[in-house]
Each structure stands twice: as structure tokens, then as C-alpha cells.
């Protein structure tokens, strides 16, 4: 982070007024945001468009070629939505992933529970049902006491409190580490 700020200050010392960057993967995101944060208008260039302009075609050559093309106005910037729209797109993309293949995400939750040495999925027919989700949310919130966790049992659950409590006796050390992973799943 500090290096990106130092680079922006170095750019300013040379009178740089705008920056062009090639969009490869997601590596450009922190660098571009840093430049914009320091007041540099940034043009994000799709590699496919940049390759249409005749000239150098190597990574080292691109380092000198991109600024020159940008200076002459020969690069077309990629569409980048406003910050609020980009955030909404990220939420929608994540929601799409979760709804397209829910079975895989449930399996991730079951695996995390197994890593925590909790056998909830053996005593609750559906871990994303009322009882399962109440218990998982309590674990994510930091509750590990089987006595307390078993009280989250829904009245319609067929397993008794004692059965659920026995399934929730796990390795506390693993539980704390794995709950961080579980937070990403819920």
C-alpha cells in the first residue's frame, strides 16, 4: 500500500497528469484505485484493443508503448461503472454464484463443520433449515458452548436437545479457526 502511494507521489513529481493501464486479470484494481485516489484520471485499456495498434508486442515493450499510445489518444478506455454500481454488481455476482449452485455451498458448510469436529449434519436433516441455520449463525457469532447451541433447536426438529448437544461437542481450537471460514459461507 505504501509503495503505491510513493509511486503516485513520484508520478506527480514528474508532472504526470493521467495514467493508462492494461487490464489483465484483477491485478490492475489496487494500482488503478490508488492512482485515482491521488487525482490521476486513469484509462483502463483492454489488451485486445491495444494489440490492434501496430507496434511492440512484448511485456517490456508495452511498458513504453502504452504511455506513448495514451499520449497520442490512440487508446480507448474500457467501460468502468461508478463505484456504487460496481458494488451492486459484486453483490449480484455473489448472489448468482450462491443461487446457481446451492448444493456446492452447502457441502462447503458441511466440510467446515466437519473441520470443526461438529457433526450437526448427522443429527439435523437439513443444515440450511431453521435449526441448522440458527446454530450456524450462533457459531459464526462466536458461540461454541454445546449447551447454548442446542437451545437453538426448532420445535419441529426430530432430534432431541441431548442428541444435538452431543453432536455439537467439538474441538474448540478448530472451531475458532474454522468459524472464520464459515463467516464467508453465510
UniProtKB/TrEMBL annotation:
Residue intervals of the Transposase IS110-like N-terminal domain: 5-115
Organism the protein comes from: Paracoccus nototheniae
Upper taxonomic lineage: Bacteria, Pseudomonadati, Pseudomonadota, Alphaproteobacteria, Rhodobacterales
Record-linked Pfam families: DEDD_Tnp_IS110
Name listed for the protein in its UniProt record: Transposase
Recorded superkingdom: Bacteria
InterPro entries attached to this UniProt entry: Transp_IS110-like_N (IPR002525), Transpos_IS110 (IPR047650)
Amino acid at each position: 500500500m505504501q509503495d503505491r502511494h510513493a509511486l503516485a507521489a513520484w508520478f506527480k513529481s514528474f508532472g504526470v497528469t493521467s495514467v493508462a493501464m492494461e487490464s489483465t486479470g484483477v491485478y490492475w484494481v489496487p494500482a488503478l484505485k490508488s492512482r485515482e485516489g491521488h487525482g490521476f484520471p486513469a484509462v483502463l485499456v483492454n489488451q485486445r484493443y491495444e494489440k490492434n495498434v501496430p507496434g511492440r508486442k512484448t511485456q517490456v515493450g508495452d511498458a513504453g508503448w502504452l504511455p506513448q499510445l495514451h499520449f497520442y489518444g490512440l487508446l480507448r478506455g474500457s467501460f468502468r461503472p461508478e463505484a456504487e454500481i460496481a458494488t451492486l454488481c459484486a453483490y449480484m455476482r455473489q448472489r448468482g454464484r450462491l443461487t446457481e449452485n446451492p448444493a456446492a455451498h452447502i457441502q462447503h458448510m458441511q466440510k467446515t463443520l466437519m473441520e470443526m469436529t461438529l457433526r450437526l449434519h448427522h443429527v439435523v436433516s437439513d443444515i440450511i433449515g431453521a435449526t441448522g441455520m440458527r446454530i450456524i449463525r450462533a457459531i459464526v457469532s462466536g458461540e461454541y458452548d454445546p449447551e447454548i447451541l442446542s437451545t437453538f433447536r426448532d420445535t419441529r426438529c426430530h432430534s432431541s436437545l441431548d442428541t444435538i448437544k452431543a453432536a455439537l461437542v467439538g474441538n474448540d481450537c478448530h472451531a475458532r479457526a474454522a468459524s472464520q471460514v464459515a463467516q464467508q459461507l453465510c
